[in-house]
Amino acid sequence: GESVGLHLPTLSVQEGDNSIINCAYSNSASDYFIWYKQESGKGPQFIIDIRSNMDKRQGQRVTVLLNKTVKHLSLQIAATQPGDSAVYFCAEGRPSGYSTLTFGKGTMLLVSP
Amino acid sequence: DADVTQTPRNRITKTGKRIMLECSQTKGHDRMYWYRQDPGLGLRLIYYSFDVKDINKGEISDGYSVSRQAQAKFSLSLESAIPNQTALYFCATSDFPSGGPSSYNEQFFGPGTRLTVL
Description:
The complex is a heterodimer. Chain A has strands at 10-14, 19-24, 32-38, 45-51, 56-58, 62-67, 72-77, 86-93, 101-103, 107-112.
């Protein structure tokens, strides 16, 4: 069936490697950032978030790094597993009185056993 | 997330038909959202609602309308469907953020509705 992964940047890694997925955001006023994982046929699932007063936040096997100087966000996944294969989206929250999110186009992560 | 359900899961319709997509949530969240997803374009916000009496247009609201029938229900309508509205549609919910109305909380997504307009 149709895949949301068509035409997306793709990162291919071996099981056990560390993965780094990058995201450039557009608005220097954005003060909230979030990573979502989307498996085939499913809705996006929350992974981790970070606010602009931080530059690093760690979760279980995941770390998000925020570089406000160059408007860059990255998601690091340690010891990548085949179950991590999915499309990963970053999103930014722009202060506007209403807390809506603007999503990036996504990166497909393919993990080989 | 099983607490956010969408019906139907798949729908094929013809140009000019009226279509309603429904979303229900049991999370008790005040905030609900409708997004569409096209291959290679990520998620784009159509409409959002921060409580039953609040409706706001998103990035791509033209050709769509919404109704917030209750805190738990938010429906999306295509009054006269056209082929370029063929896409995956997602509903999402979020709680009122502890940091105040202009702050953020994660959004919880439903499983999606695949809509095809012929």
